[in-house]
Amino acid sequence: MRRPPSPKQCSTRRGVAAVELAVLLPFLCFLFVVAVDYARIFYMAVTVQTCARNGAYYASNYPNNSYLYNDIYGYANLNDAILRDAGNLSPTPTYTVYYGSSPNGPFTQTTEPSRGGYVQVTVNWTFHTITGYPGVPSNVSLARSCVMEIAPATPTFP
Known about the structure:
Helix content: 25-40%
Radius of gyration: 27 Å
Shape: rod-shaped
Number of helices: 4
Number of domains: 1
Number of strands: 3
């Protein structure tokens, strides 16, 4: 049977937990900041994608600022449709709207085609990290695009 250690033997290990905490706490704080930055960039990427999708939906269904669409969804114009969900992004994201005749591009027209075609809305925003990381840029450009077919003015049913 083992004997319990004497008080003299126990006194040599005093403060070991405090030293371990002092060594590990900066690393744990760094992991927490990395996790927060990862969550922030994921959330902002989803927000930028939502802005692009809303803009493409608005431009594809009611490209001429239809009052019906405005009454149903409450958007005043294409700019409002794109930036409505970007209220928590500072500064305000930039966007481009291009039209084309094929879903694979090229999207070069800045005005809506006379009939048919596709619309591409690209939203750009710059993400700033909480702190700088070695080997990782502190500013990351987020760009999301959405392509939708322009709805015909008068639908045809088979």
